[in-house]
Structure prediction request, 124 residues.
Amino acid sequence: MTGAAGCGPAPVSYGFYQDGYGGMLAAEAFAEALPAAVRCVAALTGARDVREEWDEGVADAWRRSVCAAADAYAEYGEGRVGGFSVGSFSVTNYRDEGTTGSEVAREAALAELAGTGLCFTGVR
Prediction:
């Protein structure tokens, strides 16, 4: 699987998504959500890929955060989360009104990054 627009390897493989994270998306859905997920995690960590100086635990947490964000983007998209009705047909997402898919993805990614220090932006 390649990254955005087929430009090199994806920063998180579908194999890791399935086996290391336990994800359930089809390969196509994962590949479609991956670019937005990487953008989300890069905005939180400053890294668009695993860095060589990270130990394996931190690297796996970064990968899991991308997987968690991909799951959220696959379910909610990047826009507003909510529901709508047309006649007797209705679609409802089970999140608070006013929330966006990007906010859901950010929450999911942050949960996977907790304790790693990757999101710390203060003075050390």
Observations:
- The helical segments are 14-21, 27-45, 56-76, 101-113.
- Strands lie at 83-86, 89-92.
- The first strand starts at residue 83 and ends at 86.
